[in-house]
Structures are given as C-alpha cells and as structure tokens.
Design brief:
It holds the Pfam family GerE. The protein is of the alpha/beta class and about 230 residues long. Helices cover about 45% and strands about 15% of the residues.
C-alpha cells in the first residue's frame, strides 16, 4: 500500500429521532412505546401520564411529541404551546379519540402536525411518527371527517375579507389539499407540480399567514375565509 494513503473515516450512523410520549392511559402509553421501541431510527427519551409530568419533558429537546389531548390535570394543548416556545422545530403528533370539537380547533390553532386516533395499529403508529418527522401531516380518515365537519357547520364565504392575507389561486388550492390530509407528495401529484415547487408554495403560505406549521396554516386560512375544505 502506498505511503500516505488515507482512507475516509466511516460515517457515523444517523442520530435516532428523540420522541416523548404524553398519554394518561398507561396501557395506551405502553402500547405506543412498544410500537416505537424496536425502531432503529427512533428513541423514546421520556414519557408521562399527566400534564405536570409531561411539561418538563419538553426540556429534553425532542424531535417529536406523541401527545394525548385529554390529560387528567389539564389539556395537552398546553404541551404544544410549550413546545412551540422552547423547541419550535419539534413535530407534534396528536394521539386522540377526537371527542371534543373545541379541542380539535384549539389543536389546529396551537400548531399540531398530525392527528391519529387511538385505535391505530402499532405498525401504523410507527409509520405515522416517521411521516411526521419527515415533514408530512398524517391525518386518519376518521379524524379528517371531524375536521371537515368543523367547516361544514360554519358559514364560510366564497371570498375572503378585504383584510385577509393574499394567497395566490395555486397556494389556496394547495392549502385546501393539505387541509384534507394529503401529504405534500400527494398534493404535488394531484396538482401536477414538482415536490420542490410545492415546498416553495408551502413556505410562501407560512410566510403570508405568519405561521410555522400546517395546523396553524389551516386554522388561520379557515378563519380568514381563504379556503374551504367541504367541497366534493
């Protein structure tokens, strides 16, 4: 071997995504932990069954929080708000039964990134966690029907008010698809756009609406009558 030949150092394996779980039902919490435990790319760094015990987990700087809304000592939305303040890059996947309509609206406004129901299979819990970490917004079919009902029950004008932020027709179309639960890749396919173009549109939407997540964007757009998601 020639003198002085140097071989590149082997690349370090990627760091597992740090996940916290806040769920008051011990059985479901163990179920969720078990669903993620065997994944090489995920590390559950903390779990809690109450709001009081869940809030300190935010200081662990998680990459994702799997979060129940109905905690015995408070609302899980408080955890979302703490995450958005302390760890804004952390993704939030709500793990819920969708019993409370007000909680759904509050969760959207607080900026959750995904919504799955508690009867989701273990394999799908893992898949949804990975999708959320990858920047997608998983919404189960039944959860999407709850979101649609929120809009169907409210009078929504066809045109936005004069003070509403301006979104281009393509931005509105994209946001409606995202509000219905399509991933960015799926929306790109439906709209015949490249994923890169869709990503640019998303950043433009966030900038115009002054938000940082899809949930916040959907909430603000519905409130401003920029979109409606009850079209057939």
């Amino acid at each position: 071997m020639a003198q002085g030949t140097q071989h590149p150092a082997p690349e370090a394996p990627p760091r597992p995504a740090r996940v916290i779980i806040v769920e008051d039902d011990e059985r479901l919490r163990s179920y969720a932990k078990g669903a993620l435990a065997a994944a090489w790319d995920i590390a559950v760094v903390g779990d809690a069954g109450t709001l009081a015990d869940g809030l300190p987990l935010v200081d662990l700087m998680p990459d994702l929080a799997l979060l129940d809304l109905g905690l015995p000592d408070g609302n899980g939305i408080t955890v979302i708000e703490a995450i958005r303040t302390k760890v804004p890059a952390c993704r939030v996947l709500v793990f819920t039964v969708f019993e409370d309509r007000a909680s759904v609206l509050g969760t959207l406004k607080a900026g959750a990134d995904g919504y799955i129901l508690k009867d989701t299979s273990a394999d799908m819990v893992l898949a949804h966690v990975r999708a959320t970490l990858a920047g997608e917004t998983p919404i189960s079919a039944r959860a999407a029907s709850h979101l649609l009902s929120l809009v169907r029950d409210e009078p929504v004008a066809e045109t936005a008010g004069p003070d509403a932020p301006h979104l281009s027709p393509r931005e509105r179309e994209l946001l409606e698809y995202l509000a219905r639960g399509l991933s960015r890749k799926e929306a790109a396919r439906v709209m015949n756009l490249s994923p890169y173009t869709v990503a640019e549109y998303v950043q433009g939407i966030y900038r115009k609406l002054h938000v940082k997540s899809r949930g916040e964007a959907v909430f603000e757009a519905i409130q401003a009558k920029l979109i409606r998601i009850d079209r057939e």
